[in-house]
Structure formats: C-alpha cells, structure tokens
Amino acid sequence: MRPFAYATPPDAREAVLAVAERPDAAFLAGGTNLVDHLRLGVATPGLLVDVTALTSAEIEDLPDGGLRLGAAVRNSDLAADPRVRGRYPVLAEALLAGASGQLRNMATTGGNPLQRTRCVYFQDVTTPCNKREPGSGCAAIGGATRNHAILGTSGRCIATHPSDMAVALAALDAQVHVLGPDGERTVPFTDLHTLPGDTPERDTVLGHGELITAIDVPAAPIAARSRYRKVRDRASYAFALVSVAACLDVAGGRIRDARLAFGGVAHKPWRAHRAEEALRGAPATDESYRAAAGVELADARPQEGFDGGNAFKIPLLTGTLVSTLRALAGEETRA
Amino acid sequence: METELTLRVDGATHHLRVDTRTSLLDALRQRLGATSPKKGCDHGQCGACTVLVGGRRILGCLALAVAYDGAEVTTAAGLAPGPDEDHPVHRAFVDHDAFQCGYCTPGQVCSAVGVLDELERGWPSAATADVAGGPDLGDPEALDREIAERMSGNLCRCGAYKGIRAALAEVAEGVRR
C-alpha cells in the first residue's frame, strides 16, 4: 500500500480546500470501499482527508415534509429511522438489502453513492481496465459479464453501479448538496452519476475536491407505497444482478402514477422514466407492467461472455418489475 | 507516515504510534496482542474481524486505526463480565455447538451481540416483512429468518450455521422477555 498522510481539518470547507489543492488527495468517510481499494492497489492516494466528523450526522425534517440526510448519517441509522421507514419504505429496504450489518454501521449517506463498481476486472490491477487506468482497455468486454450492464454501456466500459441506496434515491428525486472549492451547488440525484461513454474513469459529475454534505429527499406521498426488490446469486450479502425501486399510486384498478429505478443494469442507478410514462393511466395488470418493462428495455444490449453472458437480465428484470408492481398494487386492493 | 492515537480495548487504555496504513484489526492483533478478532479475507467479505466500537459491530479490517482515535473497542474476549465468567452469547454458542474449528467464532460472537442489540432497538432488516413496523420477534420462524439475514456478514466455513442460529434464538428469547 502506498504511504499516505492523514488529515482531520477543522471543518468541511478546509477539508474541501485540502483535497482540491492536491491531485492525489481523497476524502475518507466510512472507508468500507476505499480501504479495500488501498489494499488492492486500485486507489493510491497520498493524502486522506477524514470528513466523517465534518458533515451532519442528523436526519432533519424539511418544511415540505421531506427529509435532509446529513452526509455522515450511517447507513444503519438511516435504515432504522422511523421517518424513513414510514415515508420512504423503498429507501429503508434498499439500505437493508445492501452489504451487512457491520458494513452498514460504517458506511455513510455521502459515501454510499460514491462507492465504485464491483467489476472484478476493475478490482484486479493485473487486468486492463479503462475505468482504473484510462486507455488500457476493458477485460470485462467478452470476459465474465454475468454481473455487467445491459443499458447505457460504451465500447470502453460495461460496469454497473453497485449501490442499492442510490437506486431508491434515484426513484425518489433526491437532491444532492455539494460543497466545492468554488462554493455550494445542488445536483439532482439522477444527474449525479454518469454513463461511461469515452470517460469511464469518471463515475459522477463531481469535480476533484467536491464533497457531498447532505442529500434531500423531497416529500413524496406516492412513496408511502413503495418497495425495493433485489435479485442476487445468494439470499443475502451479495450485489444485485438486478434490482427494482418502485413507488406506485393506484386507484380503482388504474395506475395514477409511478416512480421506478433499476439497479444492477447500468453504470448509474437507472431511472425508468419511459416505463413510468407507459404506466400512467394504464390498468394495474401484469400486462401493463410487462409492457412498461419492454418499453424501458427496448434499447438494452446484453453482453456476450465466456460465462454465458448477461442476456438473462432482460427477463429477470422484467419479472422482478412485474412482481414488485403486482405486490404494490395488491397493497392498494387490501387497503 | 506515522501517527499517534489512543484506543480503549476491552476496558484498558492504550497509547500507540502506528503507520497510517495500519488497519484497526492489525493494530489490535499485532500491536496490542488482542488476538480474538481474526483476519480471514482482509477485504470485508467474511466477518472474522468483527469487533464492537461504541457497542456497534464493525469490521476491523476495513477500518483504518488512525480514524478510530479515542474509540472504545470491545472484542469477543472482552465481553466476559469477569474472569471465569461467560457472556450469555458465549454460553449459548457452547451450549448449541455453534462452532467447529472456532476461527470465525469471535467475529460471530461480536456480530451476535450487535444483532441482539439491534433487535432490542426494533431495527428492521431485509427479512422484516413490514419495514415500518419492525421485526416480529414473537414468531419463531420469523425470528430465525431475521437471525439468518442479520448474521449473513459472518461466514463459517465449517458450516456451523445451524448451531449459530439456535444460539442466537435462545438469547433473543431473553431479549423478548
């Protein structure tokens, strides 16, 4: 592991300046992904700036009925908060579907969306990877692609984003508060992560030195009836093959509105606007749900691979969406 | 690069100077002789290094010691209320044959203590049917699902899971009462 200096500046502004002025500096929060990357040689910072104590660890009520999640709130505390569980079950379920109890006690609200892909080639410094080493090639394309993307890929990178929490936040129209060397800005959560294109080394629109200080989840009555459903190779403690974050508003057997995002299928949490549009006004039936999945996945491009590839993700995601929406509509029928 | 820090480990205070690259796990094992937390994968995938910090379970291998300056750490060895006394989780692991080789056991025990605390607080898990309502501890089958899900971050290559589940269920019964 490359030697690094460790700093705990007095406040977030100083931390941002400390990272901004050194190209090889990085922020440290929960460390659950970064510390592993230090050990693997995937990350080689010369300075770690610990921000764990520099941003809010509180969940505050917003005047509109939403919540402001401090960047230092631990994933376990966020999932356990009664307001989160009551107003946004999809967010609590997404958090609880991720990692383990130990990791959720360490991981933070600001750090979770910034965790990096679990592509095995990205994490193996002996293989080419355009994300880890721009221009070196992509060992995943034509390699083992079971866990890789089917939407929004490029010829340089087919990695997926691993966070479950991020999929729920994409569905909930969250807003990200960012502090940078030039001041504060707010980024819609769905714009935070990027598609790989020609610059797969970038995961997000954040510049070097920009720090997430809080995430706002706006009031969303539709989220009172919401779910996160994750499908993986074992029952627990594994990353998603596919996942669905869904909020559904049904009345009289008809869909009034929906919020949908998919995980495990793209370089970013995939907000499914086209599927939402297809559902609005449609009858609450399996046929409608299946048709909505078809609309969203029309541009899906499965990857071939020596492990059999990932074409299975199209029917798997379709089935997961259908069963999730059916369950949510069923809740309406019972209510 | 070296740095100084203070750790409280199983009730004793230690001042030490470590390389910034030192994990909390290595600081405990190699600097302080606290060898009950084990190094399994060293990548946060097996749970053998689980310790309690401020009463909460975390992974010592993915924690940089320098970031835990001033922390109150409890290892499985430090859970015992006194010499020749067992913690209820220790006792339950013995009574239910919840281990074979024993390598993962200190991590399992610390994780179990964390799980029991989380159940007592009413925290939901991915196995909780109603995330807003919280876990249903009254139904033995639901409790078993809760235990299996909450302990999923601790691997046991001997496959002692059946005993581990039974041990936690027994102690959790006490939590419910």
TrEMBL record, chain A:
GO terms for molecular function: FAD binding; oxidoreductase activity. Transmembrane segments: none annotated. Keywords: Oxidoreductase. Residues 1-222 form the FAD-binding PCMH-type domain. SMART domains: CO_deh_flav_C. PROSITE patterns: FAD_PCMH (PS51387). SUPFAM superfamilies: CO dehydrogenase flavoprotein C-terminal domain-like, FAD-binding/transporter-associated domain-like. PANTHER family: OXIDOREDUCTASE, XANTHINE DEHYDROGENASE SUBUNIT C-RELATED. This is FAD-binding molybdopterin dehydrogenase. The lineage of its organism: Bacteria, Bacillati, Actinomycetota, Actinomycetes, Pseudonocardiales.
From TrEMBL, chain B:
CDD domains: fer2. One of its GO terms (molecular function) is 2 iron, 2 sulfur cluster binding. Pathway: Alkaloid degradation; nicotine degradation. Residues 3-79 form the 2Fe-2S ferredoxin-type domain. Keywords: 2Fe-2S, Iron, Iron-sulfur, Metal-binding, Oxidoreductase. It comes from the Bacteria. SUPFAM superfamilies: 2Fe-2S ferredoxin-like, CO dehydrogenase ISP C-domain like. PANTHER family: OXIDOREDUCTASE, IRON-SULPHUR BINDING SUBUNIT-RELATED-RELATED (PTHR45331). This is Aldehyde dehydrogenase iron-sulfur subunit. It comes from Pseudonocardia halophobica. The lineage of its organism: Bacteria, Bacillati, Actinomycetota, Actinomycetes, Pseudonocardiales.
